[in-house]
Amino acid sequence: MVQKETADRLVKRALEARENAYAPYSRFRVGAALLAESGSVHTGCNIENAAYGPSNCAERTAFFKAVSEGERSFQAIAVVGAGETDQGQYTAPCGVCRQVMAEFCDPETFDVIMANLAGEYCVKTLGELLPDSFGAADLK
Ligand code: THU
């Protein structure tokens, strides 16, 4: 399980990344901060589109940025999402983002830190969020 200091640091970075969210359609702004095994942190926000379909979640923005910079293994991700009438809830990653996480992360050890605007959070492993996932091993 990710240490409290590390989780707090990632949540802070996710809150900062949320400031850059481009969400004029849903008004639901999301930020993410992804910790690589190397120790580097890669942030992301949701980026919506007038055609809706091309929209990208904060988590995938962070993963695609990191992978495109050469990172391949990861320890944890913090996610903070909130709309305009937020009640302090935690935002869980969507199914597509969970599948992207499964491509690069160990389901037993990768921690998903789901936080609210106050910086409170809960943590679940990827395996808890996406059991029995389809992956590279299924294609052998
Ligand atoms: N969204 C994320 O960025 N991450 C999540 O974990 C849930 C949903 C985005 C997608 C869309 O831009 C907006 O939040 C509303 O669904």
Offer a few descriptive terms.
140 residues, alpha+beta, binds tetrahydrodeoxyuridine
Overview in brief:
By secondary structure, the protein is α+β, with helices and mostly antiparallel strands.
List the secondary-structure elements in sequence, H or E. HEEHEHEEH
Euclidean distance between termini CA atoms:
31 Å
Q: What's the Cα radius of gyration? A: 14 Å
Please report which band the strand proportion falls in: under 5%, 5-15%, 15-25%, 25-35%, 35-45% or over 45%.
Answer: 15-25%
Question: Given the structure, what is the number of helices?
Answer: 4
The backbone outline, from C-alpha atoms, is globular
Classify the helix fraction into a percent range: 25-40%
Report the mean per-residue pLDDT as an integer. 97
Structural class: alpha+beta
**Bound compounds:** tetrahydrodeoxyuridine
Please outline the major beta sheet. Answer: 5 strands, mixed
Low-confidence segments, given as residue ranges, are none
Describe the structure.
The chain is α+β, with helices and mostly antiparallel strands and 140 residues long. It contains four helices and five strands; from the N terminus they run H-E-E-H-E-H-E-E-H. It has a five-stranded mixed beta sheet with strand order 2-1-3-4-5. Helix 3 links the parallel strand 3 (74-82) and strand 4 (111-115). The structure holds tetrahydrodeoxyuridine. The site of tetrahydrodeoxyuridine has 16 residues, from helix 2 and strand 3.
